[in-house]
User: Which sequence fits this backbone?
């Protein structure tokens, strides 16, 4: 990851190039326009820096074996219970309430029915 100083130096050199061009000279006709141009460039630089930091931290977490993102609501235990209950003819509402009471990440009704829809298209599951 580049240092903040090198990022700032790169930003200053790009800004100097923009001000030298005739397009930038047309834009920068007064102080307000110059300030606006500077603020926009600062925001872009900040966004790039934050994106680089976030990507670096995600890669560090993955290297440590930490999962990234939201955990899946349909855990393997919940899948096994849902399939077993569906095979004996339980209704979707009862299955969903049972799964919601199990430990693990929260599961909404729509998440359960979306999972069920995907598994009904595969006949070997139910």
Assistant:
């Amino acid at each position: 990851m580049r240092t903040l100083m090198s990022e700032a130096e790169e930003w200053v050199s790009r800004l100097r190039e923009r001000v030298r061009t005739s397009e930038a000279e047309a834009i920068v006709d007064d102080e307000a326009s110059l300030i606006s141009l500077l603020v926009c460039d600062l925001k872009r630089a900040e966004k790039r820096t934050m994106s680089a930091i976030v990507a670096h931290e995600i890669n560090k977490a993955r290297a440590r074996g930490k999962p990234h993102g939201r955990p899946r609501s349909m855990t393997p235990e919940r899948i096994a219970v849902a399939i077993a209950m569906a095979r004996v003819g339980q209704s979707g509402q009862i299955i969903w309430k049972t799964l919601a009471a199990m430990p693990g990440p929260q599961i909404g009704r729509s998440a359960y029915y979306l999972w069920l829809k995907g598994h009904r298209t595969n006949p070997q599951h139910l």
Q: What stands out?
A: The chain has a mean pLDDT of 81. The two ends are 49 Å apart (CA to CA). Residues 4-63 form one domain. The CA atoms of residues 73 and 107 lie 5 Å apart.
